[in-house]
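Bumping my old thread because nobody answered last time. Still need a sequence for this structure:
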C-alpha cells in the first residue's frame, strides 16, 4: 500500500515538473500578442500625434497650396491671427543684429540680418516642413523656406550650405544649414524672415535675438495695429534700439504708417534719420527741407539725381 502511494506521488511529481516549461511557454505565447498590440498602440499614438501637429494646425487653414517655386507669394491675410511661439528654437546663437526690418537704402528690407560666420550652424525656428531649398544668385543666395505648423513661414538666406531637402519634416532646433555669404550679400550673415500668408512680418515682433528668446508665448497679428507695433519692436529690439517704419507691404492695400517713436534721454546722439516722401515732394524740396544737397541725399540712398521718387518712399538724410 505504501509502495503504491509512493508510485502515485512520484508520477504526479514528474508530470508537474514536465508541465512547468509548457506552462511557461503558454504564458509567453499568450503574452506575445499583447506585446505586439502594445507596440501597435504606441505606434498609432505617435502617428496620431504627428498627424495632429502636421495637419490639424493653423497652417492648414491659411494656405491653399504647396509649391516649390515661389519663396513667398502673397495670399489673403486675415485681419487677426494668433501665432503660437511656444516650442521655438533660436535660429542662431548670435546676439548681434546688423540690419533692421523696414526701410533701407530706399527700399524695404523684409527681414533681420544677424551676424554669423561661415560655417556657423543655422537651425529651424519651429517644427514644420521644408518647402524650398534653392540658390538665388542675385538675392537670397543659398536659402531654405520652412512652413511651420503655427502658420508662419521662415526664410533663411545667404547660407554656405543647406543641410535639408525639400519635403523634409524638421523639428524646432534641427540643423538646416551653415552660415555663409552667398547671393546678394556684402559679408557673412543670416538673413532671417518671418512671413504670414506670404507677407513679411517684422521678426522683432516675435524674436529677441539679444536675449536669445521669444517675446511671449503668442503673438497676435492685427492689421490695424501692425505698423505701430512693428516700429515699437524695432525700437526695443532692433539695431541700436532705433525705430524705423516698416510698412506692411500688402498688394492693393495700404495701412497707416506708424510714427517713429520719440527719443529718450538715453538715445544715441548720432542716429540715422529718415524722411518719408509726401505727395508733390521732389529731391530738391526734400534737400532744402533737410538742409542738404541733392547729391548728398542721392549718395546716402544709392540713387541718381534723376530718379523718380514716389509718395511713401523712405529716404535716409543723415
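Sorry it took so long. Here it is:
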Amino acid at each position: 500500500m505504501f509502495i503504491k502511494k509512493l508510485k502515485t506521488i512520484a508520477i504526479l511529481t514528474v508530470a508537474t515538473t514536465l508541465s512547468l516549461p509548457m506552462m511557461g511557454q503558454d504564458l509567453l505565447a499568450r503574452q506575445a500578442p499583447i506585446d505586439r498590440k502594445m507596440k501597435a498602440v504606441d505606434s498609432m499614438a505617435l502617428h496620431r500625434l504627428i498627424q495632429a501637429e502636421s495637419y490639424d494646425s493653423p497652417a492648414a487653414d491659411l494656405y491653399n497650396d504647396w509649391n516649390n517655386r515661389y519663396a513667398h507669394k502673397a495670399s489673403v491675410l486675415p485681419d487677426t491671427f494668433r501665432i503660437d511661439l511656444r516650442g521655438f528654437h533660436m535660429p542662431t546663437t548670435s546676439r548681434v543684429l546688423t540690419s533692421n526690418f523696414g526701410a533701407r537704402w530706399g527700399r524695404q528690407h523684409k527681414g533681420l540680418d544677424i551676424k554669423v560666420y561661415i560655417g556657423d550652424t543655422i537651425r529651424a525656428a519651429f517644427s514644420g516642413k521644408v518647402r524650398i531649398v534653392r540658390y538665388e544668385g542675385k538675392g537670397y543666395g543659398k536659402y531654405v523656406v520652412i512652413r511651420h505648423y503655427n502658420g508662419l513661414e521662415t526664410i533663411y538666406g545667404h547660407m554656405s550650405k543647406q543641410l535639408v531637402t525639400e519635403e523634409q519634416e524638421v523639428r524646432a532646433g534641427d540643423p538646416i544649414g551653415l552660415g555663409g555669404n552667398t547671393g546678394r550679400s556684402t559679408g557673412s550673415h543670416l538673413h532671417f524672415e518671418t512671413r504670414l500668408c506670404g507677407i513679411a512680418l517684422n521678426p522683432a515682433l516675435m524674436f529677441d535675438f539679444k536675449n536669445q528668446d521669444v517675446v511671449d508665448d503668442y503673438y497676435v497679428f492685427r492689421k490695424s495695429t501692425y505698423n505701430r507695433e512693428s516700429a515699437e519692436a524695432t525700437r526695443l529690439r532692433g539695431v541700436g534700439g532705433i525705430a524705423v517704419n516698416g510698412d506692411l507691404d500688402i498688394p492693393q492695400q495700404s495701412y497707416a504708417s506708424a510714427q517713429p517713436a520719440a527719443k529718450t534721454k538715453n538715445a544715441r546722439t548720432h542716429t540715422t534719420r529718415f524722411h518719408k516722401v509726401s505727395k508733390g515732394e521732389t529731391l530738391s524740396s526734400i534737400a532744402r527741407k533737410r538742409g542738404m544737397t541733392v547729391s548728398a541725399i542721392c549718395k546716402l540712398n544709392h540713387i541718381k539725381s534723376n530718379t523718380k521718387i514716389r509718395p511713401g518712399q523712405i529716404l535716409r538724410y543723415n
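The two ends are 122 Å apart (CA to CA). Let me know if any region looks off to you.
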